[in-house]
Protein backbone atom coordinates (compact mmCIF):
# COMPACT_ATOMS: atom_id res chain seq x y z
CA UNK A 1 0.00 0.00 0.00
CA UNK A 2 2.79 2.38 0.97
CA UNK A 3 4.71 1.42 -2.20
CA UNK A 4 1.69 2.37 -4.32
CA UNK A 5 1.42 5.73 -2.54
CA UNK A 6 5.13 6.34 -3.15
CA UNK A 7 4.79 5.50 -6.82
CA UNK A 8 1.80 7.86 -7.14
CA UNK A 9 3.77 10.63 -5.47
CA UNK A 10 6.63 10.06 -7.87
CA UNK A 11 4.26 10.24 -10.84
CA UNK A 12 2.82 13.50 -9.53
CA UNK A 13 6.29 14.98 -9.07
CA UNK A 14 7.37 13.96 -12.58
CA UNK A 15 4.14 15.33 -14.06
CA UNK A 16 4.60 18.59 -12.16
CA UNK A 17 8.17 18.88 -13.44
CA UNK A 18 7.00 18.25 -17.01
CA UNK A 19 4.17 20.77 -16.70
CA UNK A 20 6.54 23.29 -15.15
CA UNK A 21 9.01 22.84 -18.01
CA UNK A 22 6.26 23.21 -20.56
CA UNK A 23 5.03 26.34 -18.82
CA UNK A 24 8.52 27.81 -18.78
CA UNK A 25 8.95 26.97 -22.46
CA UNK A 26 5.59 28.53 -23.29
CA UNK A 27 6.48 31.61 -21.23
CA UNK A 28 9.81 31.91 -23.02
CA UNK A 29 8.07 31.53 -26.36
CA UNK A 30 5.56 34.21 -25.44
CA UNK A 31 8.31 36.55 -24.29
CA UNK A 32 10.27 35.92 -27.48
CA UNK A 33 7.16 36.49 -29.62
CA UNK A 34 6.39 39.67 -27.69
CA UNK A 35 9.93 40.95 -28.20
CA UNK A 36 9.78 40.13 -31.92
CA UNK A 37 6.40 41.82 -32.22
CA UNK A 38 7.66 44.91 -30.41
CA UNK A 39 10.79 45.00 -32.56
CA UNK A 40 8.65 44.64 -35.69
CA UNK A 41 6.38 47.43 -34.53
CA UNK A 42 9.37 49.65 -33.82
CA UNK A 43 10.87 48.83 -37.23
CA UNK A 44 7.53 49.59 -38.89
CA UNK A 45 7.26 52.89 -37.05
CA UNK A 46 10.77 53.93 -38.09
CA UNK A 47 9.93 52.95 -41.70
CA UNK A 48 6.69 54.93 -41.61
CA UNK A 49 8.57 57.88 -40.09
CA UNK A 50 11.05 57.78 -42.97
CA UNK A 51 8.11 57.64 -45.41
CA UNK A 52 6.63 60.65 -43.63
CA UNK A 53 9.95 62.47 -44.11
CA UNK A 54 9.85 61.79 -47.86
CA UNK A 55 6.22 62.89 -48.13
CA UNK A 56 6.76 66.03 -46.06
CA UNK A 57 9.79 67.16 -48.09
CA UNK A 58 8.10 66.28 -51.40
CA UNK A 59 4.97 68.23 -50.45
CA UNK A 60 6.93 71.25 -49.30
CA UNK A 61 8.91 71.39 -52.55
CA UNK A 62 5.78 71.26 -54.72
CA UNK A 63 4.06 73.94 -52.65
CA UNK A 64 7.09 76.22 -52.56
CA UNK A 65 7.63 75.81 -48.81
CA UNK A 66 11.06 74.23 -49.21
CA UNK A 67 13.51 75.92 -51.56
CA UNK A 68 15.32 73.69 -54.01
CA UNK A 69 19.05 73.60 -53.30
CA UNK A 70 21.73 74.58 -55.77
CA UNK A 71 25.14 73.59 -54.41
CA UNK A 72 24.69 72.93 -50.69
CA UNK A 73 21.93 70.49 -49.64
CA UNK A 74 18.69 71.69 -48.05
CA UNK A 75 17.49 70.20 -44.75
CA UNK A 76 14.11 69.42 -43.25
CA UNK A 77 14.87 68.88 -39.58
CA UNK A 78 18.16 67.28 -38.59
CA UNK A 79 19.55 64.42 -36.54
CA UNK A 80 20.10 66.83 -33.64
CA UNK A 81 16.66 68.43 -34.07
CA UNK A 82 14.33 65.95 -35.80
CA UNK A 83 10.66 66.47 -36.55
CA UNK A 84 8.45 64.58 -34.11
CA UNK A 85 5.82 62.15 -35.33
CA UNK A 86 4.16 60.66 -32.25
CA UNK A 87 6.76 58.43 -30.57
CA UNK A 88 8.87 58.53 -33.74
CA UNK A 89 10.79 61.28 -35.52
CA UNK A 90 12.37 62.01 -38.90
CA UNK A 91 14.57 64.36 -40.86
CA UNK A 92 15.34 64.69 -44.57
CA UNK A 93 18.14 65.96 -46.79
CA UNK A 94 17.40 67.38 -50.24
CA UNK A 95 20.27 67.21 -52.77
CA UNK A 96 20.50 68.44 -56.35
CA UNK A 97 21.31 65.71 -58.89
CA UNK A 98 21.08 67.80 -62.07
CA UNK A 99 19.15 70.78 -63.39
CA UNK A 100 15.82 68.92 -63.34
CA UNK A 101 16.02 66.26 -60.62
CA UNK A 102 16.67 66.09 -56.89
CA UNK A 103 17.15 63.39 -54.28
CA UNK A 104 15.38 63.27 -50.92
CA UNK A 105 17.17 61.12 -48.31
CA UNK A 106 14.84 60.67 -45.31
CA UNK A 107 15.73 59.01 -41.99
CA UNK A 108 13.03 57.73 -39.63
CA UNK A 109 13.81 56.94 -35.97
CA UNK A 110 11.83 55.07 -33.33
CA UNK A 111 13.68 54.20 -30.16
CA UNK A 112 17.03 52.81 -31.26
CA UNK A 113 15.77 51.70 -34.66
CA UNK A 114 16.50 53.71 -37.82
CA UNK A 115 15.28 53.39 -41.40
CA UNK A 116 16.44 55.31 -44.48
CA UNK A 117 14.56 55.86 -47.71
CA UNK A 118 15.40 57.76 -50.89
CA UNK A 119 13.06 59.43 -53.36
CA UNK A 120 14.35 60.86 -56.63
CA UNK A 121 11.95 63.47 -57.97
CA UNK A 122 12.09 64.87 -61.49
CA UNK A 123 10.51 68.04 -62.86
CA UNK A 124 7.36 67.43 -64.89
CA UNK A 125 7.96 68.37 -68.57
CA UNK A 126 4.60 70.10 -69.07
CA UNK A 127 5.63 73.38 -70.66
CA UNK A 128 3.57 74.68 -73.57
CA UNK A 129 6.23 74.12 -76.22
CA UNK A 130 6.41 70.37 -76.82
CA UNK A 131 7.07 70.44 -80.58
CA UNK A 132 9.93 71.63 -82.74
CA UNK A 133 7.37 72.81 -85.31
CA UNK A 134 3.58 72.80 -85.26
CA UNK A 135 0.85 74.19 -87.50
CA UNK A 136 -2.76 74.10 -86.37
CA UNK A 137 -4.23 73.84 -89.86
CA UNK A 138 -1.31 72.71 -92.00
CA UNK A 139 2.44 72.09 -92.06
CA UNK A 140 4.59 72.20 -95.20
CA UNK A 141 8.25 71.28 -94.89
CA UNK A 142 10.04 72.21 -98.07
CA UNK A 143 12.98 70.50 -99.75
CA UNK A 144 16.26 69.92 -97.96
CA UNK A 145 14.84 70.92 -94.56
CA UNK A 146 16.07 69.39 -91.33
CA UNK A 147 14.53 68.94 -87.86
CA UNK A 148 16.06 67.45 -84.69
CA UNK A 149 16.52 68.43 -81.03
CA UNK A 150 19.11 69.27 -78.38
CA UNK A 151 19.15 70.40 -74.76
CA UNK A 152 20.58 73.85 -74.13
CA UNK A 153 21.17 73.04 -70.45
CA UNK A 154 23.78 70.50 -71.59
CA UNK A 155 25.66 72.92 -73.82
CA UNK A 156 25.58 74.12 -77.38
CA UNK A 157 23.87 72.32 -80.23
CA UNK A 158 27.20 71.55 -81.88
CA UNK A 159 28.50 69.87 -78.71
CA UNK A 160 25.60 67.40 -78.83
CA UNK A 161 26.21 66.29 -82.40
CA UNK A 162 28.59 63.39 -81.90
CA UNK A 163 29.24 59.74 -82.62
CA UNK A 164 29.43 60.32 -86.36
CA UNK A 165 25.83 61.54 -86.49
CA UNK A 166 24.62 64.52 -88.46
CA UNK A 167 22.00 65.24 -85.81
CA UNK A 168 21.98 65.83 -82.05
CA UNK A 169 18.94 64.34 -80.27
CA UNK A 170 15.80 62.76 -81.71
CA UNK A 171 12.94 64.61 -80.04
CA UNK A 172 12.42 67.04 -82.91
CA UNK A 173 8.73 66.33 -83.21
CA UNK A 174 6.66 67.97 -85.95
CA UNK A 175 2.90 68.18 -85.48
CA UNK A 176 -0.35 69.53 -86.85
CA UNK A 177 -4.06 69.34 -86.21
CA UNK A 178 -4.32 68.86 -89.98
CA UNK A 179 -2.01 67.25 -92.56
CA UNK A 180 1.78 67.35 -92.71
CA UNK A 181 3.43 67.52 -96.13
CA UNK A 182 7.11 66.75 -96.47
CA UNK A 183 9.07 67.58 -99.61
CA UNK A 184 12.12 65.72 -100.93
CA UNK A 185 15.48 65.43 -99.16
CA UNK A 186 13.96 66.27 -95.77
CA UNK A 187 14.96 64.73 -92.44
CA UNK A 188 12.90 64.69 -89.25
CA UNK A 189 14.67 63.21 -86.25
CA UNK A 190 11.57 62.68 -84.17
CA UNK A 191 7.85 62.02 -84.72
CA UNK A 192 5.66 63.52 -87.43
CA UNK A 193 2.20 63.66 -85.82
CA UNK A 194 -0.78 64.76 -87.94
CA UNK A 195 -4.14 65.63 -86.44
CA UNK A 196 -6.89 63.09 -85.75
CA UNK A 197 -8.03 61.63 -89.06
CA UNK A 198 -5.21 63.33 -90.98
CA UNK A 199 -2.03 62.02 -92.59
CA UNK A 200 1.66 62.61 -93.20
CA UNK A 201 2.42 62.95 -96.91
CA UNK A 202 6.03 61.76 -97.17
CA UNK A 203 5.72 60.40 -100.70
CA UNK A 204 8.46 62.70 -102.04
CA UNK A 205 11.85 61.16 -102.70
CA UNK A 206 14.53 60.77 -100.06
CA UNK A 207 12.49 61.70 -96.99
CA UNK A 208 13.37 60.40 -93.53
CA UNK A 209 11.33 60.32 -90.30
CA UNK A 210 12.97 58.53 -87.39
CA UNK A 211 9.84 58.25 -85.23
CA UNK A 212 6.12 57.61 -85.54
CA UNK A 213 3.72 59.01 -88.14
CA UNK A 214 0.55 57.92 -86.32
CA UNK A 215 -2.10 60.65 -85.98
CA UNK A 216 -2.77 62.27 -82.62
CA UNK A 217 -5.71 61.05 -80.58
CA UNK A 218 -6.88 64.60 -79.87
CA UNK A 219 -6.17 68.06 -81.31
CA UNK A 220 -3.39 70.13 -79.77
CA UNK A 221 -5.00 73.11 -77.97
CA UNK A 222 -4.39 76.63 -79.27
CA UNK A 223 -5.23 78.97 -76.37
CA UNK A 224 -5.66 82.68 -77.11
CA UNK A 225 -2.83 85.03 -76.17
CA UNK A 226 -3.76 87.43 -73.36
CA UNK A 227 -1.26 90.31 -73.16
CA UNK A 228 -0.59 91.79 -69.73
CA UNK A 229 -2.21 95.13 -68.94
CA UNK A 230 0.58 97.72 -69.10
CA UNK A 231 0.17 101.46 -69.63
CA UNK A 232 1.35 102.40 -73.14
CA UNK A 233 4.27 104.79 -73.56
CA UNK A 234 3.08 105.68 -77.05
CA UNK A 235 5.13 105.45 -80.24
CA UNK A 236 8.89 105.02 -80.43
CA UNK A 237 11.30 105.64 -83.30
CA UNK A 238 14.81 104.31 -82.74
CA UNK A 239 17.85 105.60 -84.60
CA UNK A 240 20.59 104.20 -82.36
CA UNK A 241 20.31 101.77 -79.42
CA UNK A 242 17.03 101.39 -77.53
CA UNK A 243 16.75 99.20 -74.42
CA UNK A 244 13.47 97.73 -73.19
CA UNK A 245 13.34 96.26 -69.69
CA UNK A 246 13.92 94.94 -67.21
CA UNK A 247 10.37 95.37 -66.00
CA UNK A 248 7.09 95.66 -67.94
CA UNK A 249 6.98 97.85 -71.09
CA UNK A 250 4.23 98.74 -73.58
CA UNK A 251 4.55 100.74 -76.81
CA UNK A 252 1.80 101.34 -79.34
CA UNK A 253 4.44 101.14 -82.07
CA UNK A 254 8.20 100.78 -82.46
CA UNK A 255 10.07 101.69 -85.63
CA UNK A 256 13.77 100.86 -85.67
CA UNK A 257 15.71 102.60 -88.44
CA UNK A 258 18.64 101.07 -90.36
CA UNK A 259 21.79 100.70 -88.31
CA UNK A 260 19.92 100.81 -84.97
CA UNK A 261 19.65 98.18 -82.22
CA UNK A 262 16.65 97.15 -80.13
CA UNK A 263 17.82 95.46 -76.94
CA UNK A 264 15.35 93.59 -74.71
CA UNK A 265 16.58 92.78 -71.19
CA UNK A 266 14.83 90.36 -68.85
CA UNK A 267 13.03 89.77 -66.70
CA UNK A 268 10.42 91.60 -68.70
CA UNK A 269 7.05 91.42 -70.43
CA UNK A 270 7.01 93.70 -73.46
CA UNK A 271 3.80 94.56 -75.34
CA UNK A 272 4.31 96.00 -78.84
CA UNK A 273 1.19 96.72 -80.86
CA UNK A 274 3.12 97.42 -84.08
CA UNK A 275 6.79 96.50 -84.63
CA UNK A 276 8.94 97.25 -87.65
CA UNK A 277 12.62 96.34 -87.70
CA UNK A 278 13.96 97.82 -90.94
CA UNK A 279 16.82 96.26 -92.93
CA UNK A 280 20.24 96.32 -91.28
CA UNK A 281 18.88 96.55 -87.72
CA UNK A 282 19.73 94.40 -84.71
CA UNK A 283 17.32 92.74 -82.28
CA UNK A 284 19.11 91.53 -79.15
CA UNK A 285 17.57 89.44 -76.33
CA UNK A 286 19.31 89.20 -72.95
CA UNK A 287 17.53 86.81 -70.56
CA UNK A 288 20.55 86.37 -68.29
CA UNK A 289 18.68 87.67 -65.24
CA UNK A 290 15.18 86.50 -66.12
CA UNK A 291 12.78 85.43 -68.89
CA UNK A 292 11.63 87.64 -71.75
CA UNK A 293 8.06 87.56 -73.08
CA UNK A 294 7.34 89.73 -76.10
CA UNK A 295 3.64 90.22 -76.95
CA UNK A 296 3.11 91.37 -80.53
CA UNK A 297 -0.57 92.29 -80.79
CA UNK A 298 -0.61 93.50 -84.41
CA UNK A 299 2.04 93.90 -87.11
CA UNK A 300 5.35 92.20 -86.34
CA UNK A 301 7.88 92.68 -89.13
CA UNK A 302 11.57 91.84 -89.20
CA UNK A 303 12.81 92.95 -92.60
CA UNK A 304 15.57 91.15 -94.48
CA UNK A 305 19.07 91.70 -93.11
CA UNK A 306 17.71 92.04 -89.58
CA UNK A 307 20.17 90.39 -87.21
CA UNK A 308 18.83 88.40 -84.25
CA UNK A 309 20.93 87.67 -81.18
CA UNK A 310 20.21 85.75 -77.97
CA UNK A 311 22.90 86.49 -75.38
CA UNK A 312 22.30 83.30 -73.38
CA UNK A 313 22.05 80.95 -76.41
CA UNK A 314 19.08 79.27 -74.70
CA UNK A 315 15.57 79.22 -76.15
CA UNK A 316 14.03 78.83 -72.71
CA UNK A 317 14.35 82.51 -71.80
CA UNK A 318 12.90 84.11 -74.95
CA UNK A 319 9.26 83.72 -76.01
CA UNK A 320 7.53 85.62 -78.81
CA UNK A 321 3.73 85.61 -78.43
CA UNK A 322 2.23 87.01 -81.62
CA UNK A 323 -1.56 87.41 -81.66
CA UNK A 324 -1.80 89.24 -84.98
CA UNK A 325 -3.78 87.68 -87.85
CA UNK A 326 -2.32 87.62 -91.37
CA UNK A 327 -4.26 84.61 -92.67
CA UNK A 328 -6.68 85.29 -95.56
CA UNK A 329 -9.43 86.20 -95.99
CA UNK A 330 -9.82 88.20 -92.78
CA UNK A 331 -6.22 88.64 -91.72
CA UNK A 332 -5.14 92.27 -91.89
CA UNK A 333 -1.85 92.19 -89.97
CA UNK A 334 1.62 91.80 -91.41
CA UNK A 335 3.72 89.15 -89.71
CA UNK A 336 7.05 88.59 -91.37
CA UNK A 337 10.24 87.12 -89.95
CA UNK A 338 12.67 87.63 -92.80
CA UNK A 339 15.81 87.96 -90.71
CA UNK A 340 19.00 86.56 -92.16
CA UNK A 341 20.36 85.09 -88.92
CA UNK A 342 19.43 82.27 -86.58
CA UNK A 343 16.62 82.74 -84.06
CA UNK A 344 17.11 81.24 -80.60
CA UNK A 345 13.80 81.15 -78.75
CA UNK A 346 10.16 80.07 -79.02
CA UNK A 347 7.41 81.53 -81.21
CA UNK A 348 3.65 81.11 -80.70
CA UNK A 349 1.40 82.73 -83.30
CA UNK A 350 -2.03 81.03 -83.16
CA UNK A 351 -3.67 83.22 -85.84
CA UNK A 352 -0.75 83.58 -88.22
CA UNK A 353 0.60 81.90 -91.30
CA UNK A 354 4.34 81.67 -90.67
CA UNK A 355 6.57 81.32 -93.69
CA UNK A 356 10.18 80.92 -92.65
CA UNK A 357 12.64 81.99 -95.32
CA UNK A 358 15.08 79.59 -96.95
CA UNK A 359 18.25 78.89 -94.99
CA UNK A 360 16.63 80.19 -91.79
CA UNK A 361 17.46 78.28 -88.59
CA UNK A 362 15.39 78.13 -85.41
CA UNK A 363 16.96 76.86 -82.20
CA UNK A 364 13.85 76.40 -80.11
CA UNK A 365 10.27 75.96 -81.32
CA UNK A 366 7.70 77.53 -83.63
CA UNK A 367 3.93 77.00 -83.33
CA UNK A 368 1.46 78.85 -85.55
CA UNK A 369 -1.77 78.42 -87.49
CA UNK A 370 -0.13 77.51 -90.79
CA UNK A 371 3.56 76.71 -91.01
CA UNK A 372 5.75 76.70 -94.10
CA UNK A 373 9.40 75.88 -93.59
CA UNK A 374 11.52 77.25 -96.40
CA UNK A 375 14.00 75.13 -98.34
CA UNK A 376 17.23 74.41 -96.52
CA UNK A 377 15.73 75.68 -93.26
CA UNK A 378 16.43 73.92 -89.98
CA UNK A 379 14.58 73.65 -86.68
CA UNK A 380 16.50 72.36 -83.67
CA UNK A 381 14.04 71.87 -80.81
CA UNK A 382 15.45 72.95 -77.45
CA UNK A 383 14.21 70.26 -75.06
CA UNK A 384 14.58 72.70 -72.19
CA UNK A 385 11.39 74.36 -73.47
CA UNK A 386 9.40 71.43 -72.10
CA UNK A 387 10.25 72.89 -68.68
CA UNK A 388 9.93 76.55 -69.70
CA UNK A 389 7.01 78.78 -70.69
CA UNK A 390 3.72 77.45 -69.30
CA UNK A 391 5.33 74.78 -67.13
CA UNK A 392 4.00 74.35 -63.61
CA UNK A 393 7.47 73.52 -62.22
CA UNK A 394 6.06 70.62 -60.27
CA UNK A 395 7.98 67.44 -59.52
CA UNK A 396 7.00 63.81 -59.80
CA UNK A 397 8.46 60.64 -58.34
CA UNK A 398 11.05 59.03 -60.59
CA UNK A 399 12.63 56.50 -58.19
CA UNK A 400 11.94 55.14 -54.69
CA UNK A 401 14.27 52.82 -52.83
CA UNK A 402 15.29 51.68 -49.38
CA UNK A 403 18.78 52.68 -48.31
CA UNK A 404 21.15 50.58 -46.21
CA UNK A 405 20.80 51.10 -42.48
CA UNK A 406 23.53 53.17 -40.89
pLDDT below 50 for ≥5 consecutive residues: which ranges?
none
Shape: elongated
Number of helices: 1
Question: What string, H for helix and E for strand, traces the elements in order?
Answer: HEEEEEEEEEEEEEEEEEEEEEEEEEEEE
Offer a concise description of the structure.
The chain is of the alpha/beta class and 406 residues long. Helix content is 15%, strand content 41%. It has one helix and 28 strands.
Question: How would you describe what is shown here?
Answer:
- This protein is α/β, with parallel strands linked by helices and 406 residues long.
- The chain has two domains: 2-124 and 394-403, no CATH class; 133-387, no CATH class.
- The chain is built from one helix and 28 strands.
- The chain has an 18-stranded parallel β-sheet that branches. Strands 1, 2, 3, 4, 5 and 28 form a six-stranded antiparallel β-sheet that branches.
- The model has no long low-confidence stretch (mean pLDDT 91).
Amino acid sequence: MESRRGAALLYVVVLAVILGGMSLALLGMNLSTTRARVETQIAQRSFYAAEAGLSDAYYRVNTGRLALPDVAPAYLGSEANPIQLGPSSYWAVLTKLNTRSYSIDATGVDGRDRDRLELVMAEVPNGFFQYAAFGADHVLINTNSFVDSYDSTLGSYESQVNGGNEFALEHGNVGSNGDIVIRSNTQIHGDAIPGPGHVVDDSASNTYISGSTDPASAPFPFPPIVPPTITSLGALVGNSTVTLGPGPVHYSSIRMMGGSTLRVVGPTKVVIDDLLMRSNTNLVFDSTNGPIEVYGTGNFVLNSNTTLQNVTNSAVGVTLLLSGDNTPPRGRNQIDIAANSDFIGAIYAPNATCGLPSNFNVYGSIICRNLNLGSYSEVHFDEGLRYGYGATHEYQSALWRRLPRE
